[in-house]
Amino acid sequence: MNMEGSSLLVNINVLFFAKSRELAKTSRAEFTVESVIKAGNLLNQLIDSFNLNTISNNLIIAHNENYIENLDTEIHLHKGDEIAVIPPISGG
Predict the structure, then answer these.
(1) 27-33 long-range contacts, Cβ below 8 Å, gap at least 24?
(2) How far is CA 91 from the centre of its chain?
């Protein structure tokens, strides 16, 4: 059976840090998303759903504590997985 094109949904936990937490107005949220998704598509859904437009060009995401450097990477998500939304750390 060909599973290509199927879109099983899973509930994941999204963690917000620093400015993303301020904009999302929460530090953690449950989010329903396709179980197989490109990192860039997931990031865009999170930006739209959690009001992160003002920092959208500066966000990094991590899947279960592993940074995702290439937004074309296909992520395989399972129920309860964590996605961290991390803006750049500013210092001075």
Answers:
(1) 31/83, 33/9, 33/77
(2) 24
Total structural domains in the chain?
Answer: 1
pTM of the model: 0.88
- Which domain, by its residues, includes 13? 9-86
Collapsing DSSP to helix, strand or coil, 14 comes out as strand
For residue 11, what are the CA distances in angstroms to 6, 24, 57, 80, 82? 16, 18, 25, 6, 10
Spell out the per-residue pLDDT of the chain, length 92, in tens.
344 555 799 999 999 999 999 999 999 999 999 999 999 999 999 999 999 999 999 999 999 999 999 999 999 999 999 999 999 776 54
Query: Rounded CA gap, 54 and 69, in Å?
Result: 20
Phi, psi for residue 71 in degrees, rounded to 5 = -70, -10
